[in-house]
Amino acid sequence: MDKLIITAAITGAATIPSLSPYLPMTPEEIANSAIEAAQAGAAIVHIHARRPEDGFPSSNPDHFREILTKIKAKSNVVICVTTGGSAMMTVEERAAVVPAFKPEMCSFNMGSINFALHSALRYLKEFKYPWEKAYLEMSKDFVFKNTFKDFDYLCEITQANQTKPELEIYDVGHLYNLDHLVSEGKMKPPLHLQFVMGVLGAIRGTPEDLTYLTTKAQVLFGADNFTWSVIGVGAAEINLSTMAIHMGGHVRVGLEDNIYIGKGKLAKSNAELVEKIVKLAGMLGREVASPNEARTILGLKGPDKVNF
Ligand code: KMH
Ligand code: ZN
Question: What is the DSSP string of 208-241?
Answer without folding.
Answer: HHHHHHHHHHHHHH-GGGEEEEEEE-GGGHHHHH
